[in-house]
Amino acid sequence: MAWMLLIVAGLLEVVWAYCMKVSDGFSKLTPSILTIVFMIASFALLSYAMKSLPLGTAYTVWTGIGAVGSFILGIVVLGEPANAMRMLAAVLIISGLVLMKLSSS
């Protein structure tokens, strides 16, 4: 159950990061409010997952899901560049996430 909560928390991190981007520096009300709501939800789920997962594992996976998810969303939705170096960085992050999962008991 902790892993599911952690995955959802990571996905919510992607949502709040996107909302923050479209809030245009918190100058648009609706995306600004959504940023805060999804941020609180993401942190809450992360804290529940940390009750049974090691700090390093939980935080690394949460951050990694957020980073890679935001990277993919940026490319697909916002038209950000997908060059070889950025793709390699994403693959390395995903590799680290898999290793963290495999190393946890």
TrEMBL record:
Superkingdom of source: Bacteria
InterPro entries associated with the record: EmrE-like, Small_drug/metabolite_transptr, Small_multidrug_res
Pfam name, any one: Multi_Drug_Res
Gene Ontology, cellular component aspect: plasma membrane
Recorded GO MF terms: transmembrane transporter activity
Claim: Transmembrane helix is one of the keywords in the record: yes
Annotated transmembrane regions: 33-50, 57-78, 84-102
Topology with respect to the bilayer: Multi-pass membrane protein
Subcellular localization(s) per the UniProt record: Cell membrane
Presence of keyword Transmembrane helix: yes
Keywords recorded for this protein, A-Z: Cell membrane, Membrane, Transmembrane, Transmembrane helix, Transport
Gene Ontology process terms (BP): xenobiotic detoxification by transmembrane export across the plasma membrane
Family affiliation: Belongs to the drug/metabolite transporter (DMT) superfamily. Small multidrug resistance (SMR) (TC 2.A.7.1) family. Gdx/SugE subfamily.
PANTHER family, per the entry: GUANIDINIUM EXPORTER, SMR FAMILY PROTON-DEPENDENT DRUG EFFLUX TRANSPORTER SUGE
NCBIfam families, per database record: PRK11431.1
Protein name: Guanidinium exporter
